[in-house]
Amino acid sequence: MPVFKDHKVNINHLLGFIPEALIAHLSATTRVDHYTKVLHGKKMFYLLMYGILENDRLSQRTLEDSFNDPVFKVLFNLDEAETVCRSSISD
Asked: Could you tell me which of 4, 28, 65, 87 has the fewest CB atoms within 10 Å of its CB?
């Protein structure tokens, strides 16, 4: 898979192509929220998109750091006090 180091993509621009209704529909039809307590489907989708664009390598640790980053919380209108740990990401 080629890496495009100089190609910068704005997360808001990219998410503009994906309707929020589609994300909600996928979350409902796949029942991804059935067992989760913290990271619901929409938040997890946003976290993965943000993590892919902001980190060279994805891991549970980098996703945890990304979720707890104030910039991520402002971008997606999340409560600043909300946190997540790696075990929640693996669930």
From this structure: 4
